[in-house]
Amino acid sequence: MNATGIPLKQPSVSAAAGDAEQLERALIDASTRLPVLMFYTSAMAWLILGTLLAGFVSFKLHSPDMFSDISFLTWGRVRPAHMNVMVYGWASMAGIGTAIWLMARLSRTVLRYPLLLVAGAGFWNLGVLLGVGGILLGDSTGYPWLEFPRYAAIILFVAYTLVVSWAVLMFRFRRGEQIYITQWYLLGAFLWFPWLYAAGQLMLFVVPVQGVLQSAVGWWYANNLLFLWFGAIGLGTAYYMIPKVIGRPVYSYHLAAIGFWSYALFSSWTGMQRLVDGPFPAWMITASIAATILTIIPVATVGLNHHMTMQGYFPLMHYSPTLRFTVFGAMSYTVFSLVGVLISLRSVARYVNFTQASIAYSHLGLYAFFTMVIFGSMYYIVPRLIGSEWRYASLIKLHFWSSAYGIGLMTLMLLAGGFLQGANMENPSLAFSESTETVLPYLRGRSLAGLLLTVSHFIFAYHFGLMLLGLGRKSTVPTFLNPVEAEGPEGHL
Amino acid sequence: MKGLAPLFLGIFGTFAFSWVGLTVIPNWQIGHLNPQSDEEGTDIYPMPQSGMVARGARVYAANGCIYCHSQQVRADYAADDIERKWGERRSAPRDYIFERPVFLGKMRMGQDIANVGARAPAEQESPLPVGAATSATSPPQQGGAPVPSPAPGGASPSPPPPSAGSPALASSPATSPANAGSPPPGAPSPGATASPSPAGSPATSHLPAASPATSPPARWSPSPNAPPVSPSPSAAAATPGGTTSVSSGASAGGAPWPVQTSGEPPMYSAAWHHVHLFSPRSINIDSDMPSYRFLYRARRISDAPSADALHLTGSDAPPEGWEVVPTFDAKCLVAYLMSLNQSHPLKEVRSAAPAAASPAPSPAPGK
Prior knowledge:
The structure holds two protein chains of two kinds.
Chain A: H1 19-62, H2 75-107, H3 114-136, H4 150-172, H5 181-206, H6 213-246, H7 253-267, H8 282-294, H9 296-310, H10 321-344, H11 346-352, H12 357-386, H13 393-425, H14 432-468
Helix pairs in contact in A: 1-2, 1-3, 1-12, 1-14, 2-3, 2-4, 2-6, 2-12, 3-4, 4-5, 5-6, 6-9, 6-10, 6-12, 7-9, 9-10, 10-12, 10-13, 12-13, 13-14
Chain B: H1 4-30, H2 51-62, H3 130-134, H4 139-142, H5 161-164, H6 175-181, H7 188-194, H8 200-204, H9 216-219, H10 233-238, H11 243-252, H12 270-278, H13 280-283, E1 296-300, E2 322-326, H14 328-339, H15 353-356
Antiparallel strand pairs in B: 1-2
Helix pairs in contact in B: 2-14
């Protein structure tokens, strides 16, 4: 027990852990099997659908006359459909799956009330399905990130209520007094999301606010969704996976506490910087810019904490898929935040506010950070649910590299294209069309990056499907990316 | 952390702090604005949307226009939006009080359209001449024609090619001689309102509307030769909806809003919007805008051609005996676009026009 009352050893698992503990863990894992796999499988299906939609969006941007007779294939409908599938279908469901497993493990109790979760997954899928169908049929609300029509939003909210009531119940049944840092983040995410979603729906649809405030509420929602929902789950997962895999406690709990509270405080105040120079009182935007800059504090503490935890253990990334994905994601979190600070500065935002750079920012947060962390956690969790190991190390490697290169290339293309686009747009001696023409080659590059990501997702889906069908490797040793030499890492990768 | 209570309180407190700070307080500050009016209670701005406009806004939302078009003009010290002629002043919260949903937008793969309705020629309602629609099947003859050569005598020195530079005609440059001498008999109003003298064309010919084949040198340069010509009264009268564009175009030599290309309906008129939505690349060859053909119907002309029929040329033209007409959604969408107009002055916003443009007073009221 240190000063803050947080145990220092919680996540570490020594190889010499007693049989009882191993057995207990296996029981907990088994109890989470059905709900977590339901969420994971649904998420994978949405990921594939979202990937196909993304490809369509990306290519249609350079051949805009394609399918112009078909209303539900118009670019302006497929794009929000893609985004919502990824945000609510893939990322949210995969995140919930990981969060469920982490909650059960960290509460050290078998999963109770699985029906709540099963029903939650069902309703969630129904909500996303209706929402995406609604968007394609022309029912989009027109608010970015909240395009789902109301009938879908209500169903999603019901689904969410089921999940969050389960989470609170589980938290009550937890054993032991200690609350690990991951649980802070997960509890935060589980509580923040419904408030956030309810506040957004309420202020936009039930008792709508006037005029431009709708945009303010919309971006407040979108940014908080990114930080308080996806960010919190992603960081919480990284706080669990990194120490777990390398078998070493988190470097400093003081830093973790500082990181958590400064994160909650500052990142929740961001969002308005996306409306920079818009028709708003300047203080709103300035407050968000200041908050964005202040997020450097949680970024630095979290980054430092992870780095110090990993110190000396980086070579393990050579073997462990989980660690490789998670560390990539955690590093991307730093990049994501720094890019966020950069493009929020007024002098920069003047150029990039209305460009592809903001798309790059969203992709950095949702993909390079969150999705990669979730991929990592799935590589850790799924074998424990299925009872067999990932079949092909080569597929995992392919998945990692095509994902990493894909998202890296995509971010670079969108950022570079966005800056050039903005520079041309802010040069009134150039025709406006110069700015869009400038960005087109970068969008082609983005399409190429999208192809890489498509490859990676299909590989992962195939591999995941093999696991589901029971075709995994029966072994007591996890699948390492590379053959382990002599003393190698311990068996809990 | 001593217990659960601080954790819960902290999680709730940080969220509530952000919610109050970024949504509740702004709502208290600017969430209950009223339209402004002058002392007599007249000249009310903004006005509530009409039914068609409101429905058009839903079409706008449904088809994702917001993902490429913003609807906000930033202040002159913050950005060059005003210099790009996207508006005469910055947008203010009061401009949007009747909009729901509000489409501020976050991306400009297309132009800002906060003022696209203000750029329309005043007589945009006047329907296209019926003859234009039917004769659209013979683009080489009709396409380049509507330039009213009789109008401005002073415009003659400027080169005729830009008027023939409509991308729709890019494949048939030979039409330019034809249109010089043959104004179509049936096209008085579009020609008078919106095809400004060819003199206006060089000033804007760097816009992609001009075909590179016809005016390559002027395309990307802001045409130093424009200022002496364009202040001609005929040009000023030619764009009644965009008075400042003319005056500032004269002084800055930059592009006013895209100028009429021949063979098309008047720029930013309702008819132009329909053609642009149906076939963006017939108007601007470099456009990345998707075409929204699903908002239009091709039908056989029964007895007389419809007044709504689109004025299409080239490969977009329907076969003989057919016409393309907008659906009701398309009409609503265009009504919505035509309603986008923030040119009315607001008391709380300083109009940037006098500083940026020539001191010539603009006829806009209440300056």
